[in-house]
Amino acid sequence: MAAKRLPSESCSDQDEPNEKRMRPRPSLASVIGEAVMVNYLCTALEPVLRRVVNEEVERSLGQRLRSFSRSPSLRIQAPEPSTLQLIFAKGLSLPIFTGSKITDEEGNQLQVVLVDTRGDQMVPVLPPSPIKVDIVVLDGEFPAGDGNNWTSEEFDRNIVRERTGKRPLLTGELAVTVRDGVASIGEIEFTDNSSWIRSRKFRIGAKVAQGSFQGVRIREAMTEAFVVKDHRGELYKKHYPPMLDDKVWRLEKIGKDGAFHKKLSFEGVNTVQDFLKLSVVDPAKLRRILGPGMSEKMWEVTIKHAKTCVLGNKNYVFRGPNYTIFLNPICQLMKAEINGSIYPTHNLSNMNRAYIENLVRQAYANWNTLEEIEGVSHEIGLLTQGDEHMADQYPNHQQITVRSFQPNGYLTGGSIEGYMPNELRGDGSNWQVSQAYLNTSNENGFRLNILESTSDEDLTSPRSFITGG
Questions:
Q1: Hey, which bits of 167-219 come out as E strands?
Q2: Measuring CA to CA, which residue among 243, 238, 246 is closest to residue 264?
Q3: What pTM did the predictor assign?
Q4: Which of 351, 279, 296, 345 is nearest to 322 (CA)?
Q5: Is the pLDDT of residue 454 over 50?
Q6: CB of 177 within 8 A of CB of 133?
Q7: How far is Cα 284 from Cα 277, in angstroms, rounded to an integer?
Q8: Which GO terms describe its biological process (predicted)?
């Protein structure tokens, strides 16, 4: 029989927490109903919310754009291109051969200059700190188009590297530093020719080394496009201008070990000086030596090239018992001294022409015994034999006054001190040449041109002296 519960126990049961009591669980129907309601609300409210959000975003963007258009300071502007650029100070000395030092047109080291290209002139710029510059080789076809605008990326893409298995294409001082706006490039040379790329030409470029300068972009420098030939070609190249002691095959149309070269060597004409002396004393003989294989056009080209030769400041004296004659390095008569009297050019016409010609022939035959003199005087420099432009054909590297001639044969009033480069002297198309000198011959094949003048310093037109005339 069960014991009767005490009242105290009954009270304690009533004081127990509610959570210990069993909670009612929601029915399946109520859960499904709530889910359906939520889905309905999302479906109904989504279009409304999208429309409201779009309207607010469009309104906000419109306000922003209108504020940008009203305030110029807030507009986005493209950066202005830099006006700083590297340039090469002078052009290259051409042609260029592998293994040969690369120099500028004056034979000096290449120089890179930093300039500001703003305006019509390039103004040198002094950077606040030294800038390192890399020297590279570029494809000769770069840049395309107008050639004025390129990016750093385009420049880098056109850098030419060496062929597989070859040495670096360019060797030497390939990293230089710009100080005070200028950088001199030491000895650099090509190790390979340019025939293997499509353009068959290279350029030398200069670019700021990566990390060397943190300011605005400095545009790269580049030279003109040029061909690089193998060094073996240099052994056969012509000289411009030729020197007196150059081998005769350095002249145009006379190839080394060719037919003309062999004929001249057989007759003792080995140097450019030998060639010019014979062309003055006996041009007909020189023409016969070369033979019919040398056409008139080839002959003219060879003679024209030879006449650009630099004569220097040496002259030669031929002395006898009662005479002394002065000749320049190619056997042209400068002055004659007979029986103690000096005969300037305007008095030579009164002398026995055969006697003068005989003395010049003797001097030519005994050339190795003639006395050499240095530092030709101003008087001798003016008594130049040959046509009236002989001073232009045979420039003298002395510090003397050179008077230039007009095509009509008159002297100009001005004067030029020192040496004038050959390229500034013209092509000689206006030279006046004595027809007798070119076409007239005598039994000895000897002719002599002497400038006449009314004084020791004034030169006029030449008079041709021909034996037996």
A1: 170-172, 175-178, 182-184, 188-190, 202-208
A2: 246
A3: 0.42
A4: 351
A5: no
A6: yes
A7: 12
A8: regulation of salicylic acid biosynthetic process
Which of the listed CATH numbers 2.170.270.10, 2.60.120.560, 3.40.1180.10, 2.60.40.1930 matches domain 84-232?
2.60.40.1930
pLDDT at 436 exceeding the cut of 60: no
Do you find a cis peptide bond into 241, omega within 30 degrees of 0? yes
Which value, in Å, is the radius of gyration of the alpha carbons in the chain? 46
**For residues 62 and 69, is the Cβ–Cβ distance under 8 A?**
no
What pLDDT was estimated at residue 392? 42
- Whether 363 and 446 have beta carbons less than 8 Å apart is answered as no
Spell out the residues 6+ positions from residue 63 whose beta carbon is closer than 8 angstroms to its own. Answer: none
Q: Which two tokens stand for residue 118?
A: 């703003």
Percent of the chain as helix, strand, coil, to the nearest 5: 30, 20, 50
Q: Is 144 helix (H, G, I), strand (E, B) or coil?
A: coil
Mean pLDDT of 238-264: 93
Using the predicted structure, report yes or no on whether residue 13 has a pLDDT greater than 70: no
Structure tokens at 240: 């411009």
What pLDDT score was predicted for residue 49?
Answer: 82
Average pLDDT across the chain, whole number: 75
DSSP-derived secondary structure for 276-309: HHHHHH-HHHHHHHH-TTS-HHHHHHHHHHHTT-
Amino acid at 464: S
% the chain with pLDDT above 70: 67
Where do the domains of the chain lie?
Answer: 84-232, 238-306, 315-466
Q: 325, exposed or middle or buried, with CB in 10 Å at 0-12, 13-18, 19+?
A: buried
